[in-house]
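# step 3/5: fold
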Amino acid sequence: MEADHKKTALRMIPYGIYVLTATDGDDITAATVNWVTQTSFDPPLVVIGMKADSAAYAITKKSGSFALNILGKGQQGAAFAFFKPAQVTDGKISGEPYRNGSTGAPLLESAAAAIECNIVELVERGDHHIVVGEVVDAHVNKQPEGRADDATLWMRELGDNVFYGG
């Protein structure tokens, strides 16, 4: 296999941009993620690829639940803010106001929408592990005009030099 072809082909897969949040006791994590997809209607399941050696993965795994905050158009600043380890001060995570959802996971008030999930399976293989979550609650903060997926912030909207994959 040609390494450049593999890299280019994998980078052709489009990704939305999301902020995954979770809590375990006093530990709170919030991290930008993009390897996300829905995999079942009944029950509603989503899968997320998370860096295996990250604090975000460790806290999410221990918590047993998470929220997937769906960023909307124009929220590039929030996406970049959560590329770094989250800082919690004055009721904000990395400068973003939040409230706790029904699972205890933080819900970003500025996110276009959020889904809360309980972890139903973990696949620990490779440099990213797969988290399978069953959707147990959903919130829409901003009703989309037109197609719902047109309201989502996409990886390509973060700039020509931002890639993840390949």
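# step 4/5: annotate
DSSP finds three helices and eleven strands in the chain.
# step 5/5: archive (pending)
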